[in-house]
Design a protein that fits this description.
Length: 207
Amino acid sequence: MALTGLGLVGFLVGHMAGHLQIFAGKEAYNAYAAFLQSLGGALWLARAGLLGLLVAHVMSAIKLNARNQEARPQAYAVKTNKATTPYALSMIYSGYTILAFVVFHIAHFTLGALPTTEMTESGGVRDVYTAYVLDFQNPLLFALYAAAMVGISMHLAHAVSSTFRTLGVMRGKYREPLSKVGPLVGIATGVGFIIPPLACLLRIVSV
């Protein structure tokens, strides 16, 4: 679960960097989108790989949770671990939030199964920029996206630090600094993803 999680975090960071190009303007963002589409089969292969990582990650989580339940079928009468963070306590819920968002996001932007702003042609290139900006000027769509980003942020806040612990590197003098990496990554990723849609909603970025 830790290794597949690291792969998914790497994808999220790259995906976030791509969306931040919305601030570079229509030409740059459309060129980025056109480059991805030009990959053709390689793009679908990458998508299949990401789906495989996601499925393996979810299945690992289910299996580990089942093992924990088998090890202690009866809940603790009194919980004394005050060091447990809100991020850790909400992992299962943030995980469900992310899964629901992934399904919605793919249906919306990748498959076009949900209503979206029609992409027009701009200089022979699909005008993904205009579609992105106009879609996120919709308060409801922005609210759904923002809620999902909160879930992703909280999930990463615990998961990244937990990964260091799983891989055996969170020990000695590294324990304290590495325990802070998770929350920092979670906040940075959440903020990085929400800034472009928020700029569209506030008309800072417009068509």
